[in-house]
Amino acid sequence: MIFEGLADKLQNAFDKLKGKGKLSEKDVKTALREVKLALLEADVNFKVVKKFVKKIEERAVGHEVLDSLTPAQQVIKVVNEELTDLMGGSQSKIAFASNPPTVIMMAGLQGAGKTTTVGKLAKLLKKQGKNPLLVAGDIYRPAAIKQLQVLGERVDQPVFSMGDKQDPVDIAKAAISNAESNGHDVVIIDTAGRLHIDEELMDELKNVKKAVKPHEILLVVDSMTGQDAVNVAQSFDEALGIDGVVLTKLDGDARGGAALSISSVTGKAIKFGGFGEKLDDLKPFHPDRMASRILGMGDVLTLIEKAEEQFDAKKAKELEEKLRKQEFTFEDFLDQMNQVRNMGPLDELLGMIPGVGKQLKGLKMDEGELDKIEAIINSMTIDERRHPEIINGSRRRRIADGSGTTVQDINRLLKQFKQTRKMMKQMGDMTKGLGGGGLKG
Ligand code: GDP
């Protein structure tokens, strides 16, 4: 995951400060030296690091911080704010045209993840209620058109293609007319990439730009290439002019140098981050949340969003009703467990909870334990799931045999379930209203 090494080093530096209580100017400077080294090791642009550390030093050695009751916390707060600022400050969104279709042109070198990102972006926009048209404008890379068509099918949005014999400018223009007549409010144009920046590529992109006047030019760069990604972004911005950056492969970039430098070097915001190869792996980039994660302060907002995506309101209401009536069963238990699992790998989720990330480092969450619970519940009859109190000794043996577990495993789960039910009952009582005396139960 991104920022792994950096997060560790920064948190170590600040842990030393936290142990001190009162801080001297020297303490802060020592910590900042460690911050500087950590950033350089994370492959952050040298000039960016220098400016960053200087800014923090100016803010952190002032009386306001050192004389405060919690100086270490204040230093971390300053670093958090400056890290956020370094990555662009606030979230930067796509500027949709008031007169649709909004035309988004994607640019980038070959292999950066451009075509994949077109598919991912289409899916993301579709979730927001848009109806995007995908345009196959990369006529040079073998299979790029086919690749986009496959992505379009998976997102269930049409792909506009004229094969690989037409001029990209004509393709782009025809695509926009097509979008207008078919009611597409967004057009996402894939364009050709090259292994390196060359004049021919830039000319082609400039021609497309001139012909269709995109509302948004998004540059796709591979974060794993570090400072090269920053240089590429700078060159594209100078030659073509870009409106924002999509940083791909953040899932494989343990250092994070590009993410931390690109915005301050180019002045362009990182609008989206690619966190994997799947279509759902493109996320809006939130500088503030990234900064919190680097500093081990968790990312509660993303966690809540993930939960909201998974838990539908109707089910939540039903569950609440069941709690009230004390009808919580093993079926609900399994349902809840699966909803949480659908949110993503457990260790990743726990890493978003403040303070948990660091403790969990190196500890793999035991998904096997959850598989076991699922197998046990699946081996129960419907009656047993709804009325666990009927599960006697011989039933326990049967369930253990059926699920490939032991009677001890069944006992443990039954005990756990009983506790959960009791807790749920208490919560249910509390929601009945303050006058109900629910806390007694
Ligand atoms: P293009 O030449 O720029 O159009 O690149 P592609 O879209 O074909 O992507 C190149 C490779 O990068 C493919 O194997 C993609 O699956 C992969 N890729 C793209 N984005 C991501 C990402 O965010 N994370 C990971 N792990 N792989 C990615």
UniProtKB/TrEMBL annotation:
Q: Can you give the residue ranges of the SRP54-type proteins GTP-binding domain?
A: 101-296
Q: Which InterPro entries match?
A: AAA+_ATPase, P-loop_NTPase, Signal_recog_part_SRP54_M_sf, Signal_recog_particl_SRP54_hlx, Signal_recog_particle_SRP54_M, SRP, SRP54, SRP54_GTPase_dom
Question: In this protein, which residues make up the domain named Signal recognition particle SRP54 helical bundle?
Answer: 2-87
Drop me one GO molecular function for this one: GTPase activity
Q: Which GO terms describe its cellular component?
A: signal recognition particle
Instruction: Determine the domain of life of the protein's source.
Output: Bacteria
Protein residues bound to GTP: 108-115, 190-194, 248-251
Is ATP-binding among the key words of this record? no
Sorted keywords for this record are:
Cytoplasm, GTP-binding, Hydrolase, Nucleotide-binding, Ribonucleoprotein, RNA-binding, Signal recognition particle
* Catalytic activity annotation: GTP + H2O = GDP + phosphate + H(+)
Physiological role: Involved in targeting and insertion of nascent membrane proteins into the cytoplasmic membrane. Binds to the hydrophobic signal sequence of the ribosome-nascent chain (RNC) as it emerges from the ribosomes. The SRP-RNC complex is then targeted to the cytoplasmic membrane where it interacts with the SRP receptor FtsY.
Notes concerning its domains: Composed of three domains: the N-terminal N domain, which is responsible for interactions with the ribosome, the central G domain, which binds GTP, and the C-terminal M domain, which binds the RNA and the signal sequence of the RNC.
The record, for HAMAP family, names: SRP54
User: Which NCBIfam families does UniProt cross-reference here?
Assistant: ffh (TIGR00959)
Give the multimer and partner information.
Part of the signal recognition particle protein translocation system, which is composed of SRP and FtsY.
In Swiss-Prot or TrEMBL terms, this protein is called: Signal recognition particle protein
Species in which this protein is naturally found: Orenia marismortui
Q: Write the gene name.
A: ffh
